[in-house]
Amino acid sequence: KSSSHVLIGQLCLLVGNLSGSVRLMAFGMFVFGLGVSPLAVVQETIIVRFFKSHGLGVSLALGLVAGKGASFISARTSYPLAEKFGPHAPFFAATGLAALSFIVNLIYLFASKWLVRGAGA
Q1: What is the pLDDT of residues 12-47, one digit of tens each?
Q2: What are the C-alpha distances in Å from 99 to residues 6, 7, 95, 116, 121?
């Protein structure tokens, strides 16, 4: 559900960018935020459970490093993308990555149901 909010928000952001509608872009960011917040909670829960023997500090540090690293990478790639392919290219790239993530989540969902059925659990 959250992944679909992220994808729909990103699509609204892309369409708003292409049409020059700041309102649609703002709405896309709002919908995107509705999906990102629950995903962040899930991500933090997974990190905390995986590193529970190392304490909360390591978990918190990993979350911060991952967030800052993703921000750094996006900042380093968006300007060259815009320079080479035009000002809409970073929005297309972000929407493509959101769509890829959504598809991978669907594959995981169907594969896990198939594995559970096959195992008879």
Answers
A1: 999 999 999 999 999 999 999 888 878 777 777 777
A2: 9, 6, 6, 26, 31
